[in-house]
């Protein structure tokens, strides 16, 4: 049987998909189109490109949007966007200069004053600041919920504030950082549907950075938009900041329109770096996941470890049910509570020899950090306690190093703690 982009696996297509060598002197790799603007062949062609770009007419069946200006489109971005759609089986994608610009563009693009945003807690620190301190300044109402809240709790919270007819978006991050707590995506879709009307579709947006794009595919479970910090697994080498948003052609069209006016698209060099990264994405993530499993199992039996937070250790109950429903892998993020508190956690972090003491995640090198005083220092103490972000918690992002070397490093650092 013939195979094509629909039947081949994404990892087979990451070296070539969407790129035509004949358009670039036969170069096997997509060159960096370091250019701000593009020359039209004729004035008529320029007119025709602008008609499509400004929505003055529909794009023809096989017509591609002509290249105009690098804030609107650029070959490195377009080819990268096409490749990214394959992992999530999305219709379209928009890439950004950071994960935060993807997230803020979606929130600003779809929310208006008076609308209500329902969002999961905890979310990434930058996202939580933007939602709580900035969106609220523009008259957007917000309601938070956590992994421990039931569907009935959430419904009751929306109804008791009289927010039902104003709900516009459900925004979630799952698994939650740094505890790996899971939010049920099917429940989010059900909630969104129950408040949607003919005039107003309630959108479900999911920050899939922690699992994606390999180990969870939110669009399959009813999400409308998937967001990534491409700085993490997609970039994967701790050398580039970028973001992405995926979804239907219609929704991504709106996202791209907003991006054109905010001017926060990624540049051609970022696009090129991410295409290079995508070629090894599957190989890197597979290895990171295998290493994480061995590290998590090792920690489980260590006398200086009080508790391990790792998706591969879920045995039964509601969290395991959600895992089976929506996760396709156990990921490469492992958190653990060390016996003691901040003092012991710091001693561990300061004693590591191979793993680096740094925030961020998903990269080839293993990283370790202390959420309570670093990534989650801005979370109010009461919220921290509720989400399980204790002073004893250490977060690890596992890389591609030799497994035995990693475990040796953790062992010698725990010995000193
Ligand atoms: C890092 C991160 C972000 C922000 O992405 P940047 O690329 O740093 O702007 C958003 N969400 C999650 C879950 C992240 O880990």
Textual characterization of the structure:
The structure is a single chain. The chain is of the alpha/beta class and 417 residues long. It has two domains: 75-278, Type I PLP-dependent aspartate aminotransferase-like (Major domain) (Aspartate Aminotransferase, domain 2, 3-Layer(aba) Sandwich); 281-416, Aspartate Aminotransferase, domain 1 (Alpha-Beta Complex). The protein contains 14 helices and twelve strands. The protein has a seven-stranded mixed beta sheet with strand order 1-7-6-5-4-2-3, with helices on both faces. It has a five-stranded mixed beta sheet with strand order 8-9-12-11-10, with helices on one face. Helix 3 (75-88) runs parallel beside helix 9 (268-278), helix 4 packs across helix 8 and helix 12 crosses helix 14 (403-416). The structure holds pyridoxal-5'-phosphate. The site of pyridoxal-5'-phosphate (PLP) has 16 residues, from helix 4 and helix 5. It comes from Roseivirga pacifica. The modification N6-(pyridoxal phosphate)lysine is found at residue 232. Keywords: Lyase, Pyridoxal phosphate.
């Amino acid at each position: 049987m013939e195979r094509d982009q629909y039947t081949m696996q994404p990892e087979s297509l990451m070296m070539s998909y969407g790129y035509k060598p004949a358009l670039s002197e036969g170069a096997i790799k997509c060159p960096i189109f370091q250019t701000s603007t593009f020359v039209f062949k004729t004035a008529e062609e320029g007119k025709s490109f602008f008609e499509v770009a400004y929505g003055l007419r529909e794009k023809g069946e096989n017509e591609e949007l002509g290249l105009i200006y690098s804030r609107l489109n650029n070959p490195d971005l377009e080819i990268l966007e096409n490749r990214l759609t394959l992992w999530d089986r999305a219709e379209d994608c928009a890439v950004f200069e950071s994960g935060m610009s993807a997230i803020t563009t979606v929130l600003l693009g779809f929310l208006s004053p008076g609308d209500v945003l329902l969002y999961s807690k905890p979310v990434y620190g930058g996202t939580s600041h933007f939602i709580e301190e900035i969106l609220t300044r523009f008259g957007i109402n917000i309601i938070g919920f956590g992994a421990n809240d039931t569907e009935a709790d959430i419904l009751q919270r929306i109804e008791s504030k009289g927010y039902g007819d104003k709900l516009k978006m459900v925004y979630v991050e799952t698994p939650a950082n740094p505890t790996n707590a899971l939010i049920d995506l099917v429940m989010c879709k059900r909630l969104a549907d129950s408040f949607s009307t003919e005039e107003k579709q309630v959108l479900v947006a999911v920050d899939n950075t922690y699992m994606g794009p390999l180990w969870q595919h939110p669009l399959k479970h009813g999400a409308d938009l998937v967001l990534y910090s491409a700085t993490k697994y997609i970039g994967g080498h701790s050398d580039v900041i970028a973001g992405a948003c995926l979804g239907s052609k219609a929704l991504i069209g709106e996202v791209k329109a907003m991006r054109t006016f905010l001017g926060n698209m990624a540049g051609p060099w970022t696009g090129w770096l991410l295409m290079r990264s995508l070629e090894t994405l599957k190989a890197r993530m597979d290895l990171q996941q295998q290493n994480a499993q061995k590290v998590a199992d090792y920690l489980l039996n260590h006398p200086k470890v009080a508790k391990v937070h790792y998706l591969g250790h879920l045995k039964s109950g509601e969290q395991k049910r959600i895992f089976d429903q929506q996760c396709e892998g156990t990921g490469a993020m492992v958190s653990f509570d060390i016996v003691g508190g901040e003092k012991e956690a710091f001693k561990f972090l300061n004693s590591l020899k191979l793993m680096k003491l740094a925030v961020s995640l998903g990269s080839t090198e293993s990283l370790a950090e202390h959420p309570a005083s670093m990534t989650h220092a801005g979370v109010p103490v009461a919220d921290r306690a509720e989400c399980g972000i204790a002073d004893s918690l250490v977060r690890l992002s596992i890389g591609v190093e030799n497994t035995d070397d990693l475990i040796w490093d953790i062992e010698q650092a725990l010995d000193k703690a």
